[in-house]
Every structure is written in structure tokens, then in C-alpha cells.
Amino acid sequence: MGKLLTLSLLGSVAFSLTVVSSVRADDEMNCAKLTQQQPPATALQWFERGVLAGHCYRFDALAVRFGPGGFKTLDIDHGVNEDGEHELIRFLDGPSVQLERKGHVLSDWRSEQQSQSAGGSLSPSASDLQKYYRFDIAGTDRVANREVVVLNVISHDGMRYSHQFWFDKSTGLPLKQLMLDESGHILEAFQVAQLNALELYPGSLSTIDSTSSSNDMGWQPSWLPGGYRRVLAESDVEINGVPMARRLYSDGLSSLSIFTGSLNNKHALREGIHGLGIFQAAVRHVEHEGQVYQIVVVGEVPTAVLSKVISNLHWSDTVPIP
Hints:
The protein contains six helices and 21 strands. The longest helix has 14 residues.
């Protein structure tokens, strides 16, 4: 998966939405459907088309991202072939940095029809997303000199952020995305300025299931917002030079991470709420069997949700993860 580049269009500064597949796990994503389907009639159909298009088109793009660290200009090269997707992202401002992603599509999500035939899979369906978000067509616009349809994806419960998407009418590609807080203020923004070498991959892409039912030992959440499931992620990271284990949870569109590690007084974060760019992180120090742990919860959710999650953790050897 590599550095979580597939988590969201904003997080990866690429075209892959958080709901990264419209097919069931261990199945195939048929890219040819994009030329066979009728134009979408509803907001949810536009959303489904955007998910598929984000994986199936080859393209070069010049884009701008606003988020932690300010504005960044990016060059994105997205390739697709029988081996899967390959994406190279070059940052054009500041130090020379590039990120690379290779591999198969992670199947987090399916259309409602596919969900009904998929048995007891952990993957959320379109109807699951509609429990927590309202999908509305807001109108039309123009982005990167291309006609687009504007979608509002509004949080129902205030426990996750809302989004706006601008989908290319011709291809379905998401050309712009905003993440909005409870007051409608922009938290993150991504916009394509120029789109080149656009070509639809005519074949199918295999998928792998990104959900995780692991019940490994450690600190587990006793409470999560509705719809959040544990998904695959890099399990070992460093925060302030301290090794920490990571668990990632997603509702299919937004995500939060729980980091745990032994408390190192030299590098310890103060307990409470910390600013992390335009987002917040909740920090707590907890003792278990004589060992003191530092726990950090951060994600695309309001501060009150972070506080409730970090206040409702327990140590478990066997209890399945929600």
C-alpha cells in the first residue's frame, strides 16, 4: 500500500477516492463499463462513476493541493495496465520529493447491488455510506477547462467531515475536492489545473480486500463513530522518533488512526488536544501491567470525536476489533 497513498484524494493528492472500489473483494473492476454505462442520473451514481474512473484512466496531471504545510504544486503520473495501477507524484515546490504507489485496487466499498450479493463481507456498501452522508447534485461548473458536475456529500451526524467533489462530465474523473468542517470552512482542498495524456484502460483490474478483522493484542477502541471499520495500513510508524503501532479505521470516505507505543519521557507529547496543521490530535498516557503507553488519535473527524475515541480505549488480547 505504501505510505497510505490510497486513502483519499486529499491524503494521497491523487485521484483515488477513499471508497476505492465499486466491486466486491477478490473480484475484478471492469473499466470498460465506463464507456458502456448511461450518463449518471443521481448524485450517488456520479459518485460511483468517479470511484471507477479514478482507477481506470491513465493520465498526466498538474494539480494544486492546500492542506497541512500550505499550498503545494504537484505533477501526477497515473498509469494502469494488467499488473494494476502505478502512480508517481512529484512535489514541485520546496525540497525535491516524490511518492510512488504500485499494486492492485483496495476494495473498501461496493455498489448497493453488489453488496446484496456479497454475503457477510466487512466492506461497506453505498447504502452504508448513505446512513452517514447525504449525496446531492449541487450544479455544474468548469475545472481545468473541462465541464464538471458538482456533488455535495454532507455528514448526517456531525461525527465526520463533509466533502464536495467536482466530477468531469466526460470521464467521471474527480478534478477537485474539498473537505469541510462543521461550519463549512475548508480544511483541505485539491484541484487539477491541467490534464494530459488521458486514456481509458480497456481491461479489468483485480482487487484485494482492504478490510481487516485482526484481533491482535493491544489497545482497542471501545467506541467508534457509526460505520467505521478497521482497514489495512502500515502497522509500524515513528512519531517524534518513538516507534508506535498504528491501527487505521474508515467509514469508506473518512478515516482516523490510533497510534500506540511505550511512553518515552524525552519525546512524550503532552496529554490533551494538539494542533496538527489544520487538524487536531488527541493524546493520552495510559498504564497497563506496569507499562506506561502513549496513545495518539488523529483523523478526518471533529475534535469531540477524537476525544471520545481516546477516552474509550481498553487493552485486549482476544476481543475482535470493531
